[in-house]
Design goal:
GO terms for molecular function: DNA-binding transcription factor activity; transcription cis-regulatory region binding. By secondary structure, the protein is an all-alpha fold. It has a single domain, classed as Tetracycline Repressor, domain 2. It is built from 6 helices and no strands.
Length: 111
């Protein structure tokens, strides 16, 4: 288990990163806010300054993951010079590659 240490700066972002790593390792339900805090080397009480609960952390992580997915899909469509069906196929392929490559995070995004 690699521990990602938090250094002064964006604690909220570091908690999201730690939670995302835990999702990949254990799935969407296999970890706690306390474990996400420990993963980055901060106390659970520090995490509660940014997230009221594990559920609010999961919601924020889902929002971040979906934003990245949206950007990925926009880039896939933009690379396709022809409009219509070819862009739709490019979008679909990009989505499937993402879901197959990162299945635990993909499941989290839609829970």
């Amino acid at each position: 288990m690699t521990r990602e240490r938090y250094h002064h700066g964006d604690l909220r972002g570091a908690l999201l990163d730690g939670a995302e790593t835990l999702v990949r390792e254990r799935g969407a339900d296999g970890w706690s806010l306390r474990e996400a805090s420990a993963r980055i080397g901060v106390s659970a009480s520090a995490a509660y300054h940014h997230f009221r609960s594990r559920e609010t952390l999961v919601q924020a992580l889902s929002t971040r993951v979906l934003a990245r997915l949206g950007e990925r899909l926009r880039r896939a469509v933009a690379r396709e010079p022809e409009e219509g069906q070819r862009r739709l196929v490019a979008l679909g392929r990009s989505y499937v590659r993402w879901a197959v490559t990162d299945p635990a995070v993909a499941r989290l995004a839609f829970t």
